[in-house]
Specification:
This protein is of the alpha/beta class. It has 29 helices and 22 strands.
Length: about 800
């Protein structure tokens, strides 16, 4: 077969050759490239002319050159003949990505007869490469250093002959020399930028020193020197582009750096302390009020508890006595905080041990005020990007958001608490960025790409211009979508699709209505439990659920019962760490083993149904026994609410989430037990593919368009349809245009997603016919690999004229 393929492969045709016998173009082409180089019109133009000459002479539909940065290990499309010219400089990949990355890793030519079927194929929507199949890439080397990759592609599946591979290796040699010149020029530019950045850093340091100059000691350490230019990868947690200066959210003040001995009279130190305590108390009061107004789900008791600690006379008396003994106010505060926090740490009660962290927190707060640097809201700085190892719901809720342009976290996943809140506040966010705090300095210029999960640190002017352009297109795209908000989500041939919102906070509900959500398809009730210090009472839960139902003004709210566990344990759950929490004590398993607490929530949900249409939904059901036990407890709760005299809807629909393989296989039997299904693809994909998507080492294996995942979804839809029960999908998959097109074709008539995505998905739905997406779904169900599915979907979207939606949102 290989010999036949080589015989049938089109032979290279020399530029200007007549018909008949085709001469070998090698020498002619090398001469032409030499002439291009001698013209010396500019490095980039030279390479562009070379790829055009190669494509023409060798009858290649695509010829491209990728520039390799050895320091960042990034390949950037530098010149192309055949791909979209607008993708030059925009298409980038790491050495672990794509077939071009394999060339770098092996330092050898790489050939694929059908590149799209290769497991390392990486598709870039902007490039227009989806119609090409065959691929050949050869390294461009100069004096033993790999500087780039020369690639060619054809739409016809073909095998390149050994002679062709040798020729392309020869052609890559002069290209390596040109790329070396480009690299040297870039180095000169970088050196100049580093020099200017160093001067900027010195200016920053001087400004910061001015803030501290009146304090006894400079807390923390200032990192000076040239600004690093980095490209950091993580997971996109909240979409959009955010640009601003980095602000590291971490304790930078150390008691180790303050002077120990008092340098002024005790009465003056006592006045300083009293002033700092008063400012801290006022700050805690204001913060609590702001959080109650902005995010009512967040427990404000922590701020009140810390305020009471500061008002405690014994705490103040201990600091006063240490000052009288000769210590400075800062040292006295530090010693008192250490003594009291250690007392709490030594206690056996876990709740009391946790108070040690509260003592340390208020110590930091008072120290800030003693040193005169305060804890002002971040909104005093314009265009801020918050950088931290992790933040709690309370932390993020206390930040003024008017000028908060982005969030970068070293820890956390796309479903973490901070991610949920950042989506609610529409703050572009990237999480799981390894060594973010170590790599980024205060004041660094950042671009946060919440779509791609990338953070650019002190990017080049070219990258800045590109993101400014993308930002303009992004805003224009969303302005156009506003006209769709009041229009129905139905296909061009009139088939309705119900678009609902996923919410976790009251603020999400208002956004859902603004974006045209037809209901709440998933209300995550665990969010307030994660911020409070104890289980919420029935009244507290009822008050929250009632407000959500009333905000939706007659639209249905689907309330999911507590989905605790895995990475979402409340602080008051004192349980040992599990080896595999995703397969452990979580979700409905916790609820069924704590029936009294479970029924408190069920009663609150039932009572909220008196204020509007409500559905109750149980998560992570894996057996008939579980759903029957949950329904039995719901029936008990119904009788208890009735006996208490509270109003409620006795016919609240009962549903379950399908998010484990067992539920897929039992879908037909489970459908008889419930009123509706909701497919939770976030967990279903992880369980079907055995992939933790928050684990960077295997995150790339998390593929919503995996054939096994699509088969599972199809199975559930068919089972629900056979039972006459409605089925929706509420995972992140619903928000991706490339996924939602397939989902509608599979038979899903309700999709629930983050509110931000509803207008875009509505536009997609209104632009296609049901028959077209059904045929697409039928076709992808016959395919055996992810790449085949993706290629099929991309080609269909281009055929239907909706590919532009991917280009904006990816």
């Amino acid at each position: 077969m290989a010999d036949t393929a080589e015989k049938n492969a089109p032979q290279p045709r020399a530029k200007g050759a007549k018909g008949g016998k085709t001469p070998r173009p090698g020498l002619h082409l090398l001469e032409e490239i030499g002439q291009i180089i001698s013209d010396a019109r500019g490095v980039r133009s030279e390479v562009q002319r070379i790829v055009e000459a190669i494509a023409s002479s060798m009858s290649m539909e695509v010829c491209s050159v990728y520039l390799y940065n050895d320091e960042s290990e990034i390949l950037t499309l530098w010149a192309t003949a055949g791909l979209d010219p607008a993708s030059i400089g925009k298409v980038q990949m790491g050495v672990g990505e794509g077939l071009t990355g394999i060339v770098v890793q092996k330092r050898q030519p790489v050939m694929a007869v059908d590149a799209r079927a290769h497991p390392r194929f990486k598709y870039f929507p902007d490039s227009g490469e989806e119609k090409f199949h065959s691929f050949l890439g050869v390294p461009a080397v100069e004096h033993g250093q790999l500087l780039g990759v020369l690639t060619v592609q054809t739409s016809r599946r073909r095998r390149f002959t050994p002679a062709e591979v040798r020729l392309f290796r020869a052609l890559a040699t002069p290209i390596g020399g040109i790329l070396r010149q480009a690299q040297l020029r870039q180095d000169l530019v970088s050196k100049e930028e580093e020099r200017r950045a160093f001067e900027d850093r010195l200016d920053d340091a001087v400004r910061r020193l001015a803030v501290y100059e009146h304090s006894p000691a400079t807390p923390g350490s200032l990192r000076t020197g040239p600004r690093q230019r980095l490209r950091l990868s993580g997971f996109g947690a909240s979409p959009g582009f955010g640009i601003g200066r980095a602000h590291l959210m971490s304790p930078t003040l150390s008691f180790d750096n303050v002077p120990r001995e008092r340098q002024q009279p005790a009465r003056r130190e006592l006045r300083r302390l009293a002033k700092a305590l008063k400012a801290s108390i006022a700050e805690l009061t204001a913060t609590g009020e702001r959080v109650r107004e902005t995010v009512p789900e967040v427990d404000t008791a922590i701020f009140e508890a810390q305020r009471m600690m500061l008002l405690d006379s014994s705490f103040q008396a201990r600091i006063d006595s240490l000052i009288q003994e000769g210590l400075s106010a800062e040292a006295a505060l530090g010693d008192a905080v250490e003594e009291i926090s250690q007392q709490f740490t030594d206690l056996h009660d876990a709740y009391m041990r946790d108070r040690a962290s509260d003592i340390r927190d208020i110590g930091q707060r008072v120290l800030h005020h003693l040193l005169g640097v305060g804890n002002e809201p971040l909104s005093i700085l314009s265009d801020v990007v918050l950088v931290a190892d992790e933040v709690s719901l309370s932390d993020l809720a206390t930040v003024e958001h008017h000028h908060l342009n982005g969030l970068v976290l070293a820890s956390g996943g796309v479903t973490s608490h901070a991610s949920i809140l950042s989506k609610s506040l529409e703050i572009p966010s990237v999480v799981g960025v390894e060594k973010a705090v170590e790599s980024i300095c205060d004041g660094d210029y950042l671009i946060v790409d919440g779509n791609a999960g990338v953070v650019y640190v002190n990017p080049s002017a070219e990258v800045q211009r590109e993101y400014q352009r993308l930002g303009r297109e992004y805003r224009a795209f969303n302005r156009d979508l506003k006209a769709l908000i009041d229009l129905p989500a139905e296909t061009a041939d009139g088939h309705p699709v119900h678009l609902s919102a996923n919410v976790g906070l009251l603020g999400d509900v208002r956004l859902a209505r603004l974006q045209g959500a037809e209901g709440i398809g998933l209300y995550r009730t665990e969010v307030p439990f994660l911020s409070h210090r104890d289980f919420l009472t029935e009244e507290e839960q009822y008050d929250l659920y009632k407000r959500v139902v009333e905000e939706m003004d007659g639209r249905t709210v689907t309330v999911r019962s507590l989905d605790l566990g895995a990475d979402k344990y409340p602080r008051y759950f004192n349980i040992p760490r599990e080896e595999n929490p995703y397969l452990g004590w979580r979700s409905i398993r916790i609820s069924l083993q704590m029936p009294d607490i479970f029924k408190v929530q069920l009663r609150a949900i039932l009572r909220a149904s008196a204020h509007g249409p409500v559905r109750v939904m149980f998560p992570m059901i894996s057996s008939l026994e579980e759903i029957r036990q949950a329904k039995w407890l719901l029936a008990e709760a119904r009788e208890e609410v009735k006996a208490s005299g509270h109003a409620f809807d006795p016919n609240v629909p009962v549903g379950m989430m399908v998010e484990v393989p067992a539920a897929v296989y039992l879908a037909g039997k489970l459908a008889a037990e419930v009123d509706f299904f909701s497919i939770g693809t976030n967990d279903l994909i992880q369980y079907v593919l055995a992939v933790d998507r928050n684990n960077r080492k295997v995150g790339s294996l998390y593929e919503p368009l995996h054939p096994a995942v699509l088969q599972c979804i199809s199975t559930v839809v068919q089972a629900a349809r056979a039972a006459g029960k409605p089925v929706s999908l509420c995972g992140e998959m619903a928000a991706d245009p490339t996924h939602s097109l397939v989902l509608i074709g599979l038979g899903l008539s309700e999709l629930s997603m983050g509110s931000f995505f509803i207008p875009a998905i509505k536009r997609l739905i209104r632009a296609v016919r049901l028959a077209d997406v059904r045929s697409l779904a039928d076709e992808v169900l016959t395919l055996a690999s992810v790449n085949e599915v993706k290629s099929c979907v991309f080609e269909k979207m281009r055929e239907l004229g909706v590919i532009d939606i991917i280009e904006v949102y990816h």
